[in-house]
Each structure stands twice: as structure tokens, then as C-alpha cells.
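#data-curation
PF: Archiving a pair of folding outputs for the training set. Convention for this channel: one message per protein, sequence first, C-alpha cells after, nothing in between. First:
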Amino acid sequence: QVQLVESGGGLVQAGGPLRLSCAASGFTFSTSGMNWFREAPGKERDLVAGISSTGGSIYYADSVKGRFTISRDNAKNMVYLQMNSLKAEDTAVYYCNTRPPPDYRDYWGRGTQVTVSS
């Protein structure tokens, strides 16, 4: 079965960096796009960044452009989110997501908490 396990969250001071990792299993990772979403208290879960199966196409939400970098390692079935210049408004639970073929249904990890202190 599809499993996504996030790690790397924690408490960081504003302006600092943090790197999230997502270990994927149970599906053909190299043919699936991967996404990072986040959900802040009282807010909807929003797409932060996405990367295509080959890494050739990448999307960033306007709020994180220039600060966050998504990447993937198809040999290790891993996707990463490097977060720099963190702001208090980046505080949220971050979720790894995929919609693998053939059914393209959503799969989610359990999330990892990121807290940025100002």
C-alpha cells in the first residue's frame, strides 16, 4: 500500500532554514508527481510546491517562491522541501502528497509540524 512518511519538522527561529523529507513506498515513485501541502490552524490545506515525476516541472505557491526548493531523488524514493528564510506565517503542519497512476487518487502522509518563532 502507498505510504508517505514525512520528517524534518521542528521549531526554528524566523529567518532560519529547515529541510523536510518524505519517504515514499508502495507505488512506482519514478512515474508519480509529488507535492508538499501545508495546513495552518484554522486554515485550509494549501499546495506549497509540486514536482513532476522527472523533476522537469516544478510549481511553487507565490508565498514561498524564492525561499523554498522542492527536489526529489528517484533512486531513493525521496522528496524534499528545503525551506529558507522562514517566516512566522510558514508555521503549519506540512504534508507530503501524491496522486499515482493508474487511479490518480490522493495519498497523504501524517504530516510534520513546522513552527517558526518570531
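PF: Second:
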Amino acid sequence: VQLVESGGGLVQPGGSLRLSCAASGSIFSINAMGWYRQAPGKRRELVATITNGGTTNYADSVKGRFTISRDNAKNTVYLQMASLKPEDTAVYYCSAQPFFQLSPAYWGQGTQVTVSS
């Protein structure tokens, strides 16, 4: 499975940004896709996930501000981010979790999101 992210960039506090992740390869093996992020000097952390059935899960820090969605016809998952804060600055990674596994097995290359005035 290959994952390619796009949509990162520089945005002012309070602004919005949408990340996209296109998946290819053995997609039939994937149950859930998601987004993680890693800020400098910090561990990679979960942002949001979505299953094939549409069940979503969010980190408390982004609930009400971020929305994850997927277009199964396009094999693409999106992360719509609103009301961005400087602490959202990080490299955002797309992930894919196969069936019968408890954690992601595939990762994208990452896309930088910087929230600054």
C-alpha cells in the first residue's frame, strides 16, 4: 500500500487547511485510515482515524475543529482542519491499518503544516 499526502502549508492562526491522502496498491487489505502528527521534539500522536464503515475517532485536542472523511471511490482520505492553532504545527502523516492489526502498517511521507502569524 502506498500513501501520498498533499495539502500542507503555512496558515495563520484561526485559519483552515485540508489535507488529502491518496492510497494505492493492496487497498482491499486496509480497514482504517487516519492521520497522525509529529511536532519537533515530540512523539508522533494520533489525530483522527476513519474505518471502512465510516466510524471516526479523534484526539481530544482536535475534536470540534478537525473532520476526517474518506472517498472510497477515489481511495482518498481527507482531513479538514479549522480554527487552527500554533500548537497544531507539525508534520502530518497519513496512515493505513490492515484488517486484524492493531496499529497502522503503512505511512505516507508526511506533509508540513505550520500555523503562524
